[in-house]
Amino acid sequence: ALGHESIAVAVDKIMQDNDALFLTHRNIHYNLVRMGSLKEEIDEYLLKNNGLAKGKLGSMNLSNPEKNIIYSSSILGNNLAVGTGYALANKLKKQNSVVFIVTGDGAIEEGVFYESLLFLKSFKLPCVVIVENNEWSLGTRIEERRANINLDSLAKSFGIDYELFADKHTFNYINKLNRIRNISIDSRKPSLVEVKLTTLGYWYMKTDEFPEFGGHSTWLYRSYLRCFKYNVNSWRKAHNCPQDIDLQLRMLNAGVNMDILNKVVSYIRPRPGQTTIGLAARLQDTNGRNQNEK
Predict the structure, then answer these.
(1) Contact partners, residue 284, CB within 8 Å, separation at least 6
(2) CA–CA dist 8, 91 (Å, integer)
(3) Percentage of the chain lying above the pLDDT 70 cut
(4) Three-state DSSP class for 11?
(5) Helix, strand, coil % over all residues of the chain, rounded to 5
(6) What residues have CB less than 8 Å from 70, skipping those under 6 apart?
(7) pTM for this structure?
(8) I need a surface site. Which of 30, 75, 126, 254 has the fewest CB within 10 A?
(9) CB contact at 8 A, 161 and 120
(10) 193 vs 221, higher pLDDT
(11) What torsion do the CA atoms of 163, 168, 174, 178 make, to the nearest 10 degrees?
(12) What is the DSSP annotation of 217-267?
């Protein structure tokens, strides 16, 4: 994910030969830095035979055991339990290594997050749990949908060391993470690292630099309604369009008043090579293909 690179570089730099890394669906930055090459990863996304996993895993479950990325999962929180079990196996095999488990601010709402921390602490397992916190859950800010989870206080309740990474300074992250790894090995216990970061996506807030351009996005667009539409029958899956605002536009044109849901929060740019968005972009694509066929 764009904006997540600093922590991925730090993890790569301090991992030792016997260490292991367990990732989520958002794994591109870790796979890229561990591999040191982009081609194999892109080929995997295209499901080519010469991809990183021979075209069998795609993006959301992409692992690379040869580079110590043992497991990646698209299931929310799933890698926490798997990584915890791997840490227990390391202890039974008397390996002097650390397991790194990367998760996000959404997965810390799952029961498996707390169960894994408790298990890791109880069985004295060297493990570093990294929480990437971009303060967003899909299209909704965390503060809009749940109470704050204070990871520092939570870690103290378990007797686990906690550290916050927030300056996005790669060299600082490397030094801090290396120290945390050594403490985890020496004390035989897990550590919890929260990383504050900004995920860079394909939308822009309204600013003087980016005035209205292409179309707008409201809270309705950023709600689960657009996800239902996107997952049920969206031509944008096949055409790789990043925005789907047709449901929103239909409801607005029908005169549906949704108060705060109609508030404009960002402005959407067309895809490269197009001059519009939404249904008009679909028609633009179709007309272009028809002209080429003629």
Answers:
(1) 274, 275, 276
(2) 25
(3) 66
(4) helix
(5) 45, 15, 40
(6) 20, 21, 22, 63, 83, 86
(7) 0.70
(8) 254
(9) no
(10) 193
(11) 10
(12) EETTTTSHHHHHHHHHH-THHHHT-S---HHHHHHHHTT---GGGG-EEEE
The two three-digit tokens of residue 200, written as one number: 């860079």
Q: Give the alpha-carbon dihedral of 112, 113, 119, 125, to 10 degrees.
A: 130
The position carrying tokens 């740019």 is 269
* One-letter amino acid of 210: F
Question: Environment class of residue 238 by beta-carbon count within 10 Å: exposed (0-12), middle (13-18) or buried (19+)?
Answer: exposed
Percentage above 90 pLDDT, the chain: 48
* Matching residue, tokens 């998760």: 103
pLDDT in tens, 92-145: 999 999 999 999 999 999 999 999 999 999 999 999 999 999 887 766 678 877
Average pLDDT of the chain to the nearest whole number: 78
What number is the average pLDDT over the span 36-40?
86
Name the one residue in this structure whose structure tokens are 């909704």: 140
In the DSSP assignment, the letter for residue 109 is G
The beta strands (E) that lie in 73-173 are given as 99-104, 127-133, 136-137, 140-141, 161-165
The two structure tokens encoding residue 198: 């900004």
